[in-house]
């Protein structure tokens, strides 16, 4: 019994790893989360606001895992089930989209702060090496998201 419980965590980790390796959208969400948390350091967010950000980040990733799972299950259906499979896959993708749009709107409410934007610009103006380092992460993130081979 104990081993089955531990094994369930191992299987879950394998599923997450497979999604990161094979699903471009999951890699995109990981990169977006990295930049959200990085820029959040310029804000005086409360623990409640960080909790909300974390719920949004993991919510999108969890829905992406569900969506990817449904897509895999619905691949190559029998000809008479093809239309239904397409609708099911579209609905799962729609769930991710709706939650992502909601998170983007909430993100605007949390992050839209002109004085903080000015502070961010000032910080990077004073620390050009860090700006270059930040800019150097962009092609790395691009390659991480779009450069994977073996994607379905």
Structure, explained:
- Belongs to the bacterial diacylglycerol kinase family.
- Keywords: ATP-binding, Cell membrane, Kinase, Lipid biosynthesis, Lipid metabolism, Membrane, Nucleotide-binding, Phospholipid biosynthesis, Phospholipid metabolism, Transferase, Transmembrane, Transmembrane helix.
- It is found in: Cell membrane.
- The chain crosses the membrane at residues 26-43, 49-70, 91-112, 124-146.
- The chain contains six helices and no strands.
- With 152 residues, the chain is mainly α.
- It has a single domain (2-146), classed as Helix Hairpins (Orthogonal Bundle).
Q: Any chance you could write out the topology, listing elements then pairs?
A:
Blueprint lengths: L1 H21 L1 H17 L6 H27 L8 H30 L2 H13 L1 H19 L6
Helix pairs in contact: 2-3, 2-6, 3-4
EC number: 2.7.1.-
Membrane topology: Multi-pass membrane protein
Keywords: ATP-binding, Cell membrane, Kinase, Lipid biosynthesis, Lipid metabolism, Membrane, Nucleotide-binding, Phospholipid biosynthesis, Phospholipid metabolism, Transferase, Transmembrane, Transmembrane helix
């Amino acid at each position: 019994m104990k081993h089955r419980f531990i094994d369930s965590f191992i299987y879950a980790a394998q599923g997450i790893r497979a999604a990161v390796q094979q699903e471009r959208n999951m890699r995109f969400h990981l990169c977006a989360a990295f930049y959200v948390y990085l820029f959040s350091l310029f804000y005086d967010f409360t623990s409640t606001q960080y909790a909300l950000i974390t719920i949004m980040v993991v919510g999108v990733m969890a829905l992406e895992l569900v969506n990817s799972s449904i897509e895999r299950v619905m691949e190559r259906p029998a000809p008479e089930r093809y239309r239904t499979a397409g609708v099911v896959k579209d609905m799962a993708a729609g769930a991710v989209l709706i939650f992502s749009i909601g998170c983007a709107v909430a993100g605007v409410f949390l992050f839209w702060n002109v004085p903080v934007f000015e502070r961010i610009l000032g910080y990077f103006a004073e620390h050009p090496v860090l700006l270059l380092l930040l800019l150097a992460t962009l092609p790395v993130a691009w390659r991480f998201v779009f450069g994977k081979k073996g994607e379905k």
